[in-house]
Amino acid sequence: MREKILEILTEVRPDIDFENETELVSGNILESFDIVQIVAELDDEFDIEISPKDLVAENFNSLEALEDLIERLQDE
Amino acid sequence: MNKTVLTWLEYMARIKPGKTAYIDEKNALSFEEVLKKARSVGTYLIKKELSSGPVAVMTERSVDYIAVFLGIVYAGHAYAPVGGDIPDERREKILKRLDPVYIFTGDELKAAFDTAEDEELLSEVRKNCSVTDPLYIIFTSGSSGDPKGVITSHLSLMNYIEAYTSVMGIGEEDVMAAQSPLDYIAAIRDIYVPLLTGASDVLIPKEYFMQPDVLFSYMNEMKISAIGWSTSAMTVLSKLGAFKENRPESVRKVCFSGSVMQGSVLKEWQEALPEALFVNQYGPTEATASCTYHKIDHPVESDEIIPIGIPYDNYRIFLISEDGKSVPAGEEGEIAVSGVGVTNGYINDPERTKAAFMQNPLNNSFEERIYKTGDIGVIREDGILMYHGRRDRQIKYMGHRVELDEIESAAASLGIIGSAALYDEEKELLWLFYSGETTVRELSIGLRKILPGFMVPRKIKNLPEMPKLPNGKTDIRYLRSMINCK
To answer: Residue A69, Cβ neighbours under 10 Å: how many?
Structure first.
């Protein structure tokens, strides 16, 4: 799953080192329209629904955080 | 008419000294504090005995910088905000074109604010100020990759702010929420509407716009009542499903501008805020932010096309045909603007100024300066203006003005010749096709050093070779078909 998430993220922003970045949202590294694209593709790929309450910095600041979020949503 | 924007500030500081003017994450400034800080910055700069000309400000998202802008005005200069987060190469191009007499940076904030105001020096400068003086210079995208600095006078700005305020019905009781960065044209509403009306303005942290629940909760806590946002910010929120469990419940006045608003997005906002007034606004930086508005007077349908409306006070809008003639109602023509809102052209750039600002070709009797927008429109029989796109390669991407040529010329400066930038309007995606050894990652990183983030295509594709037409030009239609876009 990690690989797939990384692929989606890198497609949108090839310039970002997603494996090491830990402030993707709170550091304003991602832009709001990156998030729109990333959310749409993650929803599709993992058959989940990322809702507004999930869209907080803690869930999007790093690759690990995103992985946790997706696992959580898949279990629901 | 009041002499300059400083007259607004001084009046508000006198009648509402303790009322909050601007709020950011860390600080709040009352009108009296803004006045005091601005006068200190003014004194600080006058003492430097600068020659006449603009002062650049390396701007951050903080209320202090609004006081700095006004302080520069007190010192008798126009201010030019330059975002702290833009790529170095772009900043250099802007500074080269601007040729400022001084560059104000964050390092001197304390020294400037700590300067004791000198009434004598300030009033000496003030005596020579005129309402036609340049107030600010704001840079916008240029097709050759060289940004253009639009010079706007106090008069143009004050006229626009008065017109906007009266259309939106904004008053002292309103709390506005600023979305735009301070170096963008949209910020002029957030800066100047409080000075005219006594309303308060909250600078919302940028990252909240990626976190709808956080954003709406913050807006509710601050009791935000009026917003003037980019269409794209509203679109992003609606695409993120922002209204599922929350809404900015105290918002009653919504103005949007920057790009075409989809009926489906507006419908969602209207349903979330049934009591709010929604106004579509249209216009370029060159016409002082906006020149027309349209009040939406009914719940819209998903596929509805929203008009761009009628001119604000003291603006005139008309259409010109390709051969410089007037255009009858119902037919397409280029949108031209005249009146007080027409700005003073591009700084240190007579050629590009002359190409866009000119004598009205329909008026042979007296001097009448117009700005040709490059936008195509139709004026309906009922006098309402509709937007019909552009003839050149300028697009609106996420509310920002983007010249596709500028992206290609940035790629060329990285050694990639013959790339093609495309915009898929339906999916709101910016593409760049190229061929060569450079990897997508290298190109993306390279572009980020030259272009602002929003201009760097999120879809970059390396092709074995670029498709060509028999005449040697790139086959754009083929590229469009590759991405399934019309």
So the answer is: 20
Taking the CA of residue B240 and the nearest CA in chain A, the distance in Å comes to 6
- Indicate the residue among B280, B296, B312 that finishes a domain: B296
Contact B444 A15 (CB under 8 A): yes
**Nearest residue in B to A56, CA atom:** B211
Q: Which residues pair with B140 in a beta bridge?
A: B148
Find the domain containing B37 and state its range: 5-296
Whether B80 maps to a domain, the answer reads yes
Q: Would you give the DSSP letter of residue B172? A: T
Q: How large is the ipTM?
A: 0.89
Nearest CA in chain B to A25: B207
Measured between alpha carbons, how far is B210 from B208 in angstroms, rounded to an integer?
5
Please report the beta strands in B98-240, taking only residues with DSSP state E, as ranges in sequence order: 102-104, 134-140, 148-153, 175-178, 200-203, 226-230
If interface means Cβ-Cβ distance under 8 Å, which residues of chain A face chain B? 10-15, 25-26, 28, 30-37, 39-40, 51-53, 55-57, 60
Residue in chain A closest to B454 (alpha carbons) equals A31
Q: Is the pLDDT of residue B327 over 70?
A: yes
Count: domains in chain B:
2
Contacts of A39 in chain B (CB under 8 A): 240
Cα B34 to Cα B228: distance, rounded to the nearest angstrom: 22
* pLDDT score, position B35: 98
Query: Considering its fold, how many domains does chain A have in total?
Result: 1
Q: Which domain does A55 fall in, by range?
A: 2-13+22-75
| Domain endpoint, select from B296, B311, B326 | B296
- Chain B residues within 8 A of A36 when measuring between CB atoms: 236, 239-240
Which position has the token pair 């200069």? B77
Co-location of B266 and B158 in the same domain: yes
pTM: 0.90
pLDDT at B485: 62
Question: What's the gap in Å between the CA of B432 and the closest CA on chain A?
Answer: 13
CATH number of the domain that residue A28 is part of = 1.10.1200.10
